[in-house]
Specification:
CATH architecture of the largest domain: 3-Layer(aba) Sandwich
CATH class of the largest domain: Alpha Beta
Strand order of the largest sheet: 3-5-4-6-7
CATH superfamily of the largest domain: Glutaredoxin
Distance between the termini: 82 Å
Number of strands: 7
Helix content: 55-70%
Structural class: alpha+beta
Number of helices: 10
CATH topology of the largest domain: Glutaredoxin
Shape: globular
Largest sheet: 5 strands, mixed
Length: 241
């Protein structure tokens, strides 16, 4: 009788605990979906966006200029009439989708033609274990003139290095690119650019960029791995103003 009485008391507690744990896991999964996967929290100009703000965010001139200072890398003409600032996470699959499907067309159609200056900044999300290391690797490669090469390899190999041994794989990329391995390895191992990556994350938060990828096109925010047409519309609007 004593044993049954104890069990009767413990069982409801266990049930409540299990329900609470399931709820917490659901909340965490929901956050991952919202931040990264693009579930809609609203609309901007009729387009569903992850973390879309209630109102379209448009930065003033001083704020736009702050986004250009000490960036990771910039493509294109310094004096181009339109500037795109991207906040990216190398471990985000939707950032990879954007790179694979859209970024190349923007570069060829607008950057290479002198219409757009394209600026890259970092926003590694906290639930991506190797995103900071990936961002630092791109910066370390940039020290030796190979930002674009490392950027491409990191996104190309995302499914591999995100499973583990990321630093080892990044060092392999450096060798593949013909970089000075000793210099690159020291840069990465010493976390030379950890503060710079964190500064980018703080800047993103300051201006409302909470998910990846996020873009500011002449100061107007566009959120998510949007189709190429969405960028064309935003760029052409900026060219007209």
């Amino acid at each position: 009788m004593m044993k049954n009485s104890v069990q009767d008391k413990i069982l409801p507690v266990m049930v409540v605990a299990l329900i609470g744990a399931a709820f917490a896991l659901g909340m965490m999964w929901g956050k991952v979906q919202v931040y990264e996967k693009g579930e809609s929290l609203g609309q901007v100009d009729g387009v569903d966006n992850a973390l879309a703000p209630e109102k379209v965010i448009e930065l003033d001139a001083d704020s736009q200029n702050e986004l250009l200072v000490d960036s990771v890398y910039a493509y294109g003409d310094e004096n181009a009439p339109v500037t795109i600032v991207e906040f990216t996470d190398y471990e985000c699959p939707f950032c990879k989708s954007y790179v694979d499907e859209t970024m190349g067309s923007i570069i060829s159609d607008y950057v290479d033609t002198g219409k757009v200056k394209y600026v890259v900044r970092d926003l590694p999300l906290g639930f991506h274990a190797s995103a900071v290391s990936a961002a630092m690797s791109a910066r370390c490669a940039n020290d030796q003139g190979q930002f674009t090469g490392m950027h491409g390899l990191i996104f190309e190999g995302q499914e591999e290095w995100s499973l583990g041994e990321a630093d080892k794989i990044f060092k392999g990329y450096a060798s593949e690119l013909g970089l000075d391995g000793g210099v690159f390895n020291e840069c990465l191992d010493s976390e030379k650019y950890a503060d710079a990556v964190e500064a980018d994350s703080q800047l993103a938060a300051k201006y409302g960029a909470n998910g990846t990828p996020s873009f500011f096109i002449n100061g107007k925010m566009l959120v998510g791995a949007q189709p190429y047409e969405a960028f064309v519309e935003a760029i052409e609007e900026a060219l007209e103003n």
